[in-house]
Amino acid sequence: MNQESVSATLTFAVPAARVFAVLADPAAHAAIDGTGWVQAPADRAPLTEVGQIFRMDMYHADHPDGDYQVVNKVAVIDPPHVIGWLTGTDPGDGRLEFGGWIWRYDLAPAGPSETEVTLTYDWSGVPQYIRDRIRFPPFGPEHLINSLHHLAELAAPASRT
Fold it and tell me: Is 23 buried (19+), middle (13-18) or exposed (0-12) by CB count in 10 A?
């Protein structure tokens, strides 16, 4: 981990297109999350383009409201290679505010049916006034590897009985 980002990498026994499809589905994000903070998607449309907005219902015991909602904006998308989004808030005045951190998944083929997935949480764009209120990263490094394991399980073909 460096001062401004943290990453984890895991190889999945699944083609990149399948992994990407799970990441592009906001309904899967609560199951991917390694912290338990993501509760449910408020927007369920698949992620398809830069600038697309999607909201997630969240819970964190240290948040002033406990339950809250974040707004996300797709910052990068190149199926099936990369997807990433900025996270922020909607103060209700018609403009969205993003905190300067990004979640990014880079997918690289590691064979005909394997994909190396790197999850990066980058807070290099966070202004000082937010850093004064929130410690970065706001979770331990195990969160990223937990998320990758959850993603691998979701992307795996269903077992047949």
Answer: buried
List the structure tokens of 18. 């399948």
Residue 8 tokens read as 């984890």
- Determine the length of the chain: 161
Q: Name the strand (E) or helix (H) holding 22.
A: helix 16-23
- Grouping H, G, I as helix, E, B as strand and the rest as coil, residue 29 is helix
Per-residue pLDDT of 62-103, as tens digits, reads 666 766 677 999 999 999 999 999 999 888 888 999 999 999
Q: What is the DSSP string of 73-133?
A: EEEEEETTTEEEEEEEE--SSS--EEEEEEEEEEEEE-STT-EEEEEEEE-TT--HHHHTT
Is residue 71 packed enough to be buried (19+ CB in 10 Å), middle (13-18) or exposed (0-12)?
Answer: buried
